[in-house]
Records
---
Amino acid sequence: MAMPQESIWDVAAPGGRFWQWLPTPTTTSILWAALALGLCWLWWKNNSQNDRPRRTQGGRKSFMPGPRPLPIIGNLHQLGELPHRTLAELSKTHGPLMFLRLGSVPFVVASSSQAAKLVLQTHDKTFAGRPVHWTAPKIIMGPTMPSVLFHQPDAYWRLARQICVSDFFSNKRMHYFQGVRMREVSNLLVSILNVALEGSKPILLREVLQAGILNIIAIMSVGKPLQRFLTVGSGSCDVDIVRSIFETKASLGLFEIGDYIPWLAWLDLQGNRKRHRQVAKNARTVLQRIVDTRRIQHGSQGNPSPQDLLDILLKAAGDPNNKDIQFDDAAVRAILLDMFVAGTDTATMTIEWALAELLQNRNKLQKLITELHEVVGSSRIVHENDLPNLSYLRAVVNETLRLHPSAPLLPPHRSMDACDVDGYHIPMGTNVYVNAWTIQRDPSLWENPLDFEPERFLGSPMMDSIPGQYMELIPFGGGRRSCPGWRLGLLITQIVLANILHAFGWEIPIGTSVSLDEKFGIAVSMLKPLYISPLLKLESNILIDAQKTLSDLVEIT
Ligand code: HEM
């Protein structure tokens, strides 16, 4: 019988096989070797310029300017606690289109209104993507992230977004829920009244606002305030739905090292994954319970016409025309989460910032109070129908969104294709930040840009503009990825702000002050939340009667 031929490896080492000369590999040594190889690869990738936007002018190639990255972490160390501010500083050196590498992920930062226009208008379709490395949303919503906010712009996303825009956020639906919103505003006023009657103790205004606004979004989305869904049991652990929503928001706002150094993601260096998984399990449990209950109700009522977002989504999920698109329960849950996550803090923080600015600028506060008094009088609360007559209020909200946009860098966009922007060739898969914060404080666009001057909007065409119409003012983004809930966001911000200023005076406790320092997060908030005392201005029975009348008008089951 012929002997099998020896391979080159068998003969390479005299007296034995090649690998017998190597030390026996242990798991640790394999890990170290893998780590070393990974580091080399990252070093090479960081220093290679393959994915760096470049342009050719007069036969000479030049790269998009940007700060020099470090190995492995790229420019991550330069972001600091308030990335919109540090990126604004860097853009002063490197220009309005700047390249950075965050970890190993390539980013372009647009810091002028012209650069924003290129991203959000001229190449809107190309830059409609979202990052592919997004640990928390993937764990919480599932690997395809079937949410409007996080999903890539494909047929599913277009359908989900269109359902939201043309049905849920339609004028008809907004009008339908007007009574509900007013009733929740009156509830909010009465909860502040109870504090005021106790001798005007200071309150954490943010908590009261958050609870009221969450209720508005919940009723419009799932038919009733979240507290009305009894705490549900899931096996041995009980899941509180309001807590679950807050935990989800907190998880989605966490900085994840693996999103920037994907190669390290599996190590879960920050130990966040366990937390995300628990958050995902809780959210799935509470939301699925709501979905199942509604299905049972639908079953017993025949095919009712949709009223809230859940009805609309279930109708879409059962529509045979959508059978090629996976519009399943995971999608329904993710879109509901979108509304709670994207709709609550943005409006809450905008109201808090507005009040903080007004307390620092007492003459503007007085002007707004006078307007409210003239238009509404002192015998009733402010109604949504009053809003068209409250132009200074609208100007105050615009000015607040200019100085304090909730998402100062907008959520990251991503190029779905290679494209040329301002002569630079930008490869597919490049992430993009649009620095709305710096654009909205650009001295070449705004006079005295750091001053709180609502008057600048009076008589300006920007006063009632729609998102993306003016690139100088983009708190809601622009283009196909712009905020679909902007009308509702503005409505809630205006009606709540108007009412808390009309019904109460606000005092800063002696020995404290209002600080405009910021805290970065899913929505940028005040570092030191407002802790202020309400002083009743309207007669208390006006608030109590309003609450009673509105509750009688709008019944909730
Ligand atoms: C003052 C209030 C609000 C502000 C400042 C705000 C701001 C924004 C911004 C900046 C974006 C991203 C735009 C981009 O990527 O270019 C966005 C997206 C979004 N917003 Fe809002 N928003 C507000 C209120 C709301 C409300 C009330 C809802 C829903 C109830 C909502 C739902 C969404 C959703 C679903 C998206 C994702 C859109 C997409 O990716 O296609 N927002 N919002």
---
Amino acid sequence: MDLSTISLSSSLPSPFLHQPSLRPKAAPLSGIFLRNNPPPLFSRLNRRPIAAAVQQSQNDDFVLEDVPHLTNFLPDLPSYPNPLHGSQAYSIVKNTFVSQEDVVAQNIVIRKDSPRGIHFRRAGPREKVYFKPEEVRACIVTCGGLCPGINTVIREIVCGLNNMYGVEDILGIEEGYRGFYSKNTVRLTPKVVNHIHKRGGTFLRTSRGGHDTQKIVDNIADRGINQVYIIGGDGTQRGAACIYEEAQKRGLQVAVAGIPKTIDNDIAVKDKSFGFDTAVEEAQRAINAAHVEVESVENGVGIVKLMGRYSGFIAMFATLASRDVDCCLIPESPFYLEGRGGLYEFLEERLKENGHLVIVIAEGAGQEYVAAEVSAANEKDASGNRLLLDVGPWLSDKIKDHFTKTRKMPINMKYIDPTYMIRAIPSNASDNIYCTLLAHSAVHGAMAGYTGFTVGPVNSRHAYIPISRVTEKQKTVELTGRMWARLLASTNQPSFISSDLEEVVQDINSMNITSK
Ligand SMILES: Nc1ncnc2c1ncn2[C@@H]1O[C@H](COP(=O)(O)OP(=O)(O)OP(=O)(O)O)[C@@H](O)[C@H]1O
Ligand SMILES: O=P(O)(O)OC[C@H]1O[C@](O)(CO)[C@@H](O)[C@@H]1O
Ligand SMILES: [Mg+2]
């Protein structure tokens, strides 16, 4: 068990409950473990009591992975009644405010005797806020690659702050983290952002690299910013954690809220990333085009390359949605070309059977093969992410060579690379709604004094999730999970698992692992 897991059980000696980082904000959740992910300073201070508390509560099985609160390091911060009390939108809601006791369970498929497991705080407006609206100076920044819906999140943070809380002072930081110290800010009002959700990209522009925590926090302090909304992927959220830690170290009343973004859908804990549905939908157009092309010629072979550096979610879902795909190749599932059970054998069978076929490949798949054949320097982007080799043309050449040279069978290759087309578009209707919920959750959380947190749905219910949970591990397609099995069942493609590996997978499957 994690040493930062502590118990708030009523049997605890009171000193534990009085340590600032451990103290619940309102009514404590009774009889629970609280995993606060405290910043290094607090974990150092609390090491002994935390370990002792764990020992005392070994039998308790309810874990709350809590997010930090400004009062953890500013204990005398005053609070105010939430202005939503009087808002025309919320005053008629039956339970306007989310109770401090409301939590969201990470696992909802459980067995009768399973432990209650990990929970997160439910997102939403709280009875008390820790900012007077007229004293809020918020800023929004977008970093990393694009994804559909960023503009909707920006719009809804601005409109949410303004319409729900009466906040008027909102700044846009342009071109990512480096914009904090190298650019002027732009004033964001509901009028300025009114139409931006209809456009792809980010109204505030973006960049990679350039994260300098000291300079960023200096700038936040100099400008009198007290709420920071950070939209970006895993790298961006790591940067957000640094900003939160530095602001806390300096004792600044600055709430840092992260809205995780990635087209690859590889953010842990959250159900899915915003813009992902839109991207999968757009990918259908490329797959359809490939299918139409190859269906119309003799021995047509279509290849569609989609994004997905380390995870094949876009490829997997686009394949499952389409039904025209014969084979889906993803980074998590190593494939091989030659021999029994290999890709060539399968493609030959499909061509004999149907006269055409479509392959979808995620950009991160087969990197080891490409690397072995092309002399490429190990290049990185400005943020330090490894630049991938282009697997699409490599695969297309391999298949062409195999059929025309080895099998003496001419094929008609149609290669489509819609990489940027699927992420540079505006979000669809359902992603727009999703983005609105994310933005509102972030606004409610920051106003309520939470900081160093991210937002997202866990089993469909929106929650406040510690930043570390979304940065420590990337979500990947589980080869032993049901979704990948559904894909294999749908395409009937080889699993590319040799018999030795099959045994290992069966062993893993027989362990008590549940998958969605
Ligand atoms: N470990 C880190 N600590 C502080 N800042 C970081 C860290 N990693 C990345 N960043 C900063 O976060 C920003 C975005 O990072 P990156 O380019 O990796 O994109 P990302 O947020 O992971 O999005 P995506 O990968 O989905 O495009 C950059 O400005 C980068 O400097
Ligand atoms: O070319 P860019 O903008 O660096 O982004 C490419 C990368 O960004 C991602 O979309 C992640 O955001 C990856 O799938 C892709 O490899
Ligand atoms: Mg990333």
